[in-house]
Amino acid sequence: MSHWEEFYATHLPPTDFEDNRILLKEFCERHKKAGERIVLITSGGTTVPLEHNTVRFVDNFSAGTRGAASAEYFLEHGYVVIFMHRLKSLEPFTRHFSGQKFMDMLELHDQGPNTSITVKPDSVDVLAPVLASYKHAQEGGRVLYVTFTTVSDYFWLLRAACECLAIFETKALLFLAAAVSDFYVPSNEMPTHKIQSGAGAPTIQLQLVPKLLAPLVNLWVPHAFVVSFKLETDESILIVKARDSLNKYKHKLVIGNMLQTRRQKVVFVTKDTSFEVSLTREQMLNGMEIEDSIVTNVITNHTEFLKTHQY
Ligand code: 9Z3
After folding, report:
1. Could you read off the pLDDT tens digit of each residue along the chain, which spans 311 residues?
2. Is this entry keyworded Ligase (predicted)?
3. Whether 166 contacts 40, CB under 8 Å
4. Which residue has the least CA distance to atom 7 on ligand 1?
5. What top-level class would CATH report for the domain 3-308?
């Protein structure tokens, strides 16, 4: 049995798995009939629980900005979107109004029983286009939101999503932007209850997670256009690692990014080319997002691919 098969044989699916599978299937079948292009976006970090009754877990930095912003741009370009994200990470549209930003957009007119709330005039310019895009996506049923928390939930959901996406063949695009943990504690090595401090400092042995890109590219969605992300903190190894990944899994594109500069620049690495996509200082000051350029470039690549791989 391969490492990934062993994973599925020894880890139970999450409790909401069957519900999500039904939603994914229905969404894919509906949009397949309409002849749409579809993108699966994975977004946010995964947790690695240390106990079955989880009190503590290992986490990572990702807030899901890349995935949430990209979803909006893919919708703008006419794709339908499966937004597979970490529960409570950023989501398309609402990300513009998270926390105090939203409160600051509103005005309270406190007039006793006739109290009302309005949007401040200068915030209407911000809110209106986002609201219009949101309504268009929502009313047309063009986005499906499914959530994961642990790395194990992510693995189950990713395979189910791929199995439903396979019917789109080359029209399916996978945009794997989630920050998935490379290490975890396998289910059979995890204690049931909270680790007690009385026994002294615990030694926690993490294991490597199986690399799902292999079955994903070869078995689950063999005709799809698969884009993965590679995150590094040492620039000198970024392109080498991205190219290694392409050579190993034989998918179409790896987008490399550095933790420190991920909002300003990324590098597109294909089988025989690499080029940087970046924002100028001026573009950043004007509020432009790098995901706009990333998505435009990815779609150009997908369109080229469709021309040569249409059945
Ligand atoms: C990325 O590299 C994403 O661009 C970020 C986005 C996670 C950096 P934010 O959520 O960040 O907008 O703050 N995602 C993939 C990272 C990753 O874990 N890749 C694995 C690897 O590099 C394999 S797919 O080995």
Report:
1. 999 999 999 999 999 999 999 999 999 999 999 999 999 999 999 999 999 999 999 999 999 999 999 999 999 999 999 999 999 999 999 999 988 989 999 999 998 999 999 999 999 999 999 999 999 999 999 999 999 999 999 999 999 999 999 999 999 999 999 999 999 999 999 999 999 999 999 999 999 999 999 999 999 999 999 999 999 999 999 999 999 999 999 999 999 999 999 999 999 999 889 999 999 999 999 999 999 999 999 999 999 999 998 65
2. yes
3. no
4. 179
5. alpha beta
Question: 176 in ligand 1 pocket by Cβ < 6 Å?
Answer: yes
Q: Residue 305 and residue 309: Cα distance in Å, rounded?
A: 6
Contact 9, 1 (CB under 8 A): yes
User: Ligand 1 pocket, 31 CB below 6 A?
Assistant: no
* Ligand 1 centroid from CA 255, angstroms: 9
Give the domain ranges of the chain. Answer: 3-308
**Atom 16, ligand 1: residue with shortest CA distance:** 179
Residue ID of nearest Cα to ligand 1 atom 20: 230
Terminal Cα distance for the chain, rounded = 33
Residue of the CA atom closest to atom 23 of ligand 1: 230
CB neighbour class for 13 (10 Å; exposed up to 12, middle 13-18, buried from 19): middle
Q: Is the Cβ atom of 105 under 6 angstroms away from ligand 1? A: no
